[in-house]
Amino acid sequence: MKGEQDDMSDDSIEALLRQVGARNEPSAATKEEVRRAVHDEWRTTVARRRRRRNALAFSAAASFAFVVLVAGWILRFAAPEADIAVTIARIDGPVSLSDSSRAARLGDPLTVGASVKTGETGRVAFAYGSGLSLRLDRSSALERVARDRFRLSAGAVYVDAPTNAKPDELVIETRVGVVRHLGTQYQVRQWHDAVEISIREGRVEIAGSDATTLAAAGEKIRISHDGRIERETISSQDPAWDWAETTAPLFSIEDRTLDEFLQWAARETGREVAYASAEAQREAENVRLRGSIDGLDPVTALSAVLSTTDFVQYEAGENLLGVRLAKEGDD
Description:
The protein is an alpha+beta fold. It has helices spanning 2-20, 28-78, 242-246, 258-268, 278-286, 298-306, and strands at residues 86-92, 95-97, 115-118, 123-128, 132-136, 141-146, 149-160, 171-173, 178-190, 194-207, 212-216, 219-224, 229-233, 272-275, 311-314, 320-325. The protein starts with a helix and ends in a 6-residue tail after the last strand.
């Protein structure tokens, strides 16, 4: 009985399958649609992953750039500023440095925190940075309190800051205020009851505790300790500048043009070169010098050098150094 039922079931299933027939295959269009759907989904997934990787990479790069930028700013403001070289360029008579056990010598540095003193017959000139000059008169005392700041406690200091020199700021502290300059030649002299600032070229600013005073070329300002200010005029040829001229740093004329020497001599004596003719200027720019003027002040050196050339001086005005060819005066 049971066997008959099993045979009937098998026969029934087989008959049913014959009636249903084989399963229909999907059409080509359906297959293509499915394929495109799957491919599009795959591309979307890949693109999403790529964007995620790019975002992570960009984030990492941005973070690195930020770190570099911050580090740059930290180094810029945290790192100490480069020192400015201050060395003896000329020395006449007794001069002493506080950080040395011996007498000062040519080439010795004036370091931050050190001071320099000149004796009753001593004078000294320092080269400051690139192109600037500081000179101390007799019986003077100057301390370097910072890389670009000096304190005058006695005597006088002369500053020569050409307009084409590197713009390293230079500050002179006095009992009545701080002196700053803009492309100038000036001197500061400290007396027991006042400070005098004389300007030969350019302008200076004197910043006191109560007010700021400005002065220009041709002025001499006297500021007393009680704040009173007196002004008067001073010529660029005034004898008050003579000591600074004789303390000028040594100038090497070897293989320099005559014009270069004349420009130096003119500046050191508070004048400008005035050639008598274009021919004289061209000649001066081509003449090469030989020898040395070491130990000579600018006025003496000028006479000595011109005597070896075909040039002579002529009267051109108070603030002019007149130079002409000797033959130009024969007419």
